[in-house]
Amino acid sequence: MFVRLLAVLGLFVALAAAPQPAAAQQSLTIFAAASLKNALDDVDAAFRKATGVKVVASYEASSALAKQIEQGAPADVFISADLAWMDYASAHKLIKPDTRYNLLGNRLVLIAPKDSNLDHVVIAKGFDIAKLAGDGRIAVADVKAVPAGRYAKAALEKLGTWATAEPKLAQAENVRATLAFVARNETPLGIVYATDAKIEPKVKIVGEFPDDAYPPVTYPVAETSASKNAAAARYLAFLRTGVAKAVFEKYGFSYLIKPVS
Amino acid sequence: MIELSPQDWTAVALSLRIAVVATLVSLPFGIAIATLLARRNFWGKTLVDAIIYLPLVLPPVVTGYLLLITLGRHAPVGAFLADHFGIVFAFRWTGAVISCGVMAFPLMVRAIRLSIEAIDRRLEDAAATLGAGPFWNFATVTLPLALPGIIAGAMLAFARALGEFGATITFVSNIPGETQTISAAIYTLTQVPGGDSAALSLVVVAVVISLAALVASEWLARRATARLHGA
Amino acid sequence: MLVVDVEKTLGEFALHAAFEAAGGATALFGPSGAGKTSLINMVAGLLRPDRGRIVLDGETLFDAAKRIDVPAWRRRIGCVFQEGRLFPHLSVRHNLDYGRWMGGHDADPAAFAHVVELLDIGALLDRRPGKLSGGERQRVAVGRALLMRPRLLLLDEPLASLDEARKADILPYLERLRDEAKVPMIYVSHDAAEVKRIASRVVRLDGGKVTAAGGAELLAV
After folding, report:
1. What is the CATH number of domain A108-208?
2. Domain count along chain C
3. Of A80, A169, B37, C13, which is least packed with CB atoms within 10 Å of its CB?
4. Taking Cα atoms as reference points, which of A14, A27, A21 lies closest to residue B14?
5. What is the span of the domain harbouring residue C24?
6. Chain B contact partners (≥3 CB pairs within 8 A)
7. pLDDT given for residue B218 in this prediction
């Protein structure tokens, strides 16, 4: 009996001690805003093909990522969905300031589940989103910290419909969770980026927020100050290439810089 | 039927590895604490008892947050360990081992403690009269007789560690290949458009592993009990 | 030579007993509840007296005033308990060997064979305690205590849990034990017939106090 137990124990120890896969090859850790997931996955695959460097990406709300980097998370590159969180990172000396640049832009849209009766909503002053939602709630990202939520709040305030909308909000921890709410028909309406709506077949865009209603959505990129990874600089350079530009634009992002190659 | 990407399988392997290490590392502590609680009365015992069982009743995120503010890279203990020994737990799989281990510990202690309390102390008295000092008495009488409980406690802890989510994602977040366990992977997939089928596949894998662990635990414990009583 | 003079209060019950025992078999005789088991446990080191002394062959095992209390595992006193208390996870053979193993002594096949023959437990060696009858268990328990080479053997009502037929079977073994093993014995019982066969010296215990000490004539009362 004890021999058998020892054998099982040995199996466990072997399992635990087994070297982790992919530890040997070079890898790069990216912390990127949740809305970048699909596009950046493609870019990362292209980067790996071009350089052989494996990219490990963690996609969460920019706010969560910034806090984690502050706590010592091992990120090499940080891509935020707004300037405020990159400024936060900069103020807390979490990034190398001379590596920072603005890469992408995006737009805010109003979405509904695919089968919704709603369509062609005109979003302008006097627009009553609460009434539009009826008995249901309006899905947004957390309005206090997450960029997509902050942009949404700014837009609703500018349009004069925030007061009635606020009690009807269903706040999610990032913009993709917001998207999932609407895709699953949990809420009749949601506010996400145009690029998110594009990749989710279960939702449709029912309205676009006017550009002057919210600050321009900007995605800054930077290398973290703790990073000692040589591949980080190559990655940042890769993001400026025509290959990357094509991918981002395919997903609906606006590419803010002139590509270098 | 089960369609999983390499990243998903990485999450499975990582979960197994973390759960195994967490269980193995906690076991000596679990046995020691369970024996102490089962056999000794000392000032502050109720407090120690309460602290051990705290992770069972605290919201997991709270436990994770407490770990973050003590063992985080810039936190008191964490900074000390990092600066003097180069040991970092935050956002590393070793941190996941700690969060999973902490959450599973009360279950392990409880099972082992119950089995030690059930041991007839008169047997230990007999061993003492036969010349067994405290250490050998524990090793040759108490431990073997407590084996079914120890096995049950270890497997329970393993299953709990495998499924741990709240404390882990708060302490070490969700980095693929490093801290993204099965639970975290499933959680992430729920936010990926079209990720439901992969999420379900992972759920199936998780259920299978947990069931296997519980069945194995039952079987091993029963065999140990049978062996104890003369099979 | 055992010298005992101890006091202990257990709840409402006050035990205050003093007696001596030299070689051969001494019986500790008295009704249930007299305190016999507590007294024996104190000699074995399993129960701590409140006050008093216990001295065995000149070595002080317990002295409250001098703060001496030798732990049970160092006293080299063999015990046979009423319930046997064999280790269920070990075979009979390993149970028998336990005391020798703990004492760090080398194997002594001759002594082992002798005890096995004395108690007629040869056929049981590879069995587990769970598969033994009550009488077989008690014989193994006696063998186990013997094989640790004790300087004193304490038997606490070893036959109490057996029926008359079993008792009649085992008594001859105990008589042989008394005659052949060169170890002084203290035999605890409330059964006069048993005691009469085993012991020549009797210490009477009643209500926590030694009421008489002498020969077998004390059993008649």
Report:
1. 3.40.190.10
2. 1
3. C13
4. A21
5. 2-219
6. A, C
7. 86
What one-character-per-residue DSSP string does B85-122 give? H----TTSHHHHHHHHHHHHHHHHHHHHHHHHHTS-HH
Chain C: give the shortest CA distance to residue B143, in Å. 11
pLDDT-flagged residues of chain B (< 50): 231
Query: What's the average model confidence in pLDDT over A186-209?
Result: 95
User: Which pLDDT value is given to residue C163?
Assistant: 83
- Helices marked H in chain A: 2-17, 37-51, 62-70, 83-91, 129-133, 147-158, 162-165, 175-183, 194-199, 230-238, 242-251
User: Contact at 8 Å (CB) between B67 and B54?
Assistant: no
Which structural domains are found in chain B, ordered by start?
6-228 (1.10.3720.10)
A41: three-class secondary structure by DSSP: helix
Q: Is the pLDDT of residue A3 over 80?
A: no
ipTM of the complex: 0.91
Q: What percent of chain A has pLDDT over 90?
A: 82
Sign of CA dihedral B218, B223, B229, B231: positive
Question: What does pLDDT average to over chain C?
Answer: 90
Bridge-based pairing of strands C25-29 and C201-206 is parallel
Query: Where do the structural domains in chain A lie, given as residue ranges?
Result: 23-105+217-255, 108-208
Touching check for B128 and chain C: CB below 8 Å? yes
Distance (Å) from the alpha carbon of B201 to chain A's nearest alpha carbon:
19
Q: Which CATH superfamily is domain A23-105+217-255 in?
A: Periplasmic binding protein-like II (3.40.190.10)
Q: Chain B residues with CB inside 8 Å of C74's CB?
A: 131, 133
Tokens linked to C150? 């004790």
CB atoms within 10 A of CB C49: 25
Is the pTM above the cut of 0.90? Answer: no
Across the interface, do A183 and B220 touch by the CB < 8 Å criterion?
no
Closest by Cβ to B73, choosing from A15, A72, A200: A72
Average pLDDT over residues C55-76: 94
Neighbouring CB atoms inside 10 A of C122's CB total 10
Q: Do B74 and A13 touch (CB under 8 A)?
A: no
